[in-house]
Amino acid sequence: MPRPLNATCTAIQKDGATLQVTASKKITLPADYLPANTKTGDAVVVEVMSEDQYQKRQKNVAQAILTEILGASEGDNGSQKNQ
């Protein structure tokens, strides 16, 4: 399971963004990977995972959304029958 890295965005420039993870560890990545409207000083969370872990997460999220939608639909139909 991926372990999140809590970081602070310390710089945003054209060539990349710098995230401070600890006093001595930094991550630099393309600035367009940051969430929209991220500013210097903002806290961010970074997760690194294998392709297999990513695929499993995507599948789990899709199943949860589908279950929620189908569950909501069944609940709506049930409430209409009682009216």
Describe the fold and architecture.
The protein has 2 domains: 1-48, SH3 type barrels (Roll), CATH 2.30.30; 49-83. Mean pLDDT is 88; it is low at 78-83. The chain has a 4-stranded antiparallel beta sheet, with no helix packed on it. The protein is 37% helix and 30% strand. The longest helix is centred in the C-terminal third of the chain and has 31 residues, at 51-81. It contains 1 helix and 4 strands.
In angstroms, what is the radius of gyration?
20 Å
Following the backbone from N to C, one meets helices and strands in this order, namely EEEEH
Helix content: 25-40%
CATH architecture field of the largest domain:
Roll
Tally of strands:
4
Regions with pLDDT < 50 over 5+ consecutive residues? 78-83
Alpha-carbon distance between the two ends:
46 Å
What would you call the shape?
Answer: elongated
Strand order of the largest sheet: 3-2-1-4
Structural class category: alpha+beta
Strand content: 25-35%
At the third CATH level, what is the topology name of the largest domain? SH3 type barrels
Compute the average pLDDT: 88
Put simply, the count of helices is 1
Which CATH C-level class of the largest domain is it?
Mainly Beta
- The total domain count is 2
Major beta sheet summary:
4 strands, antiparallel
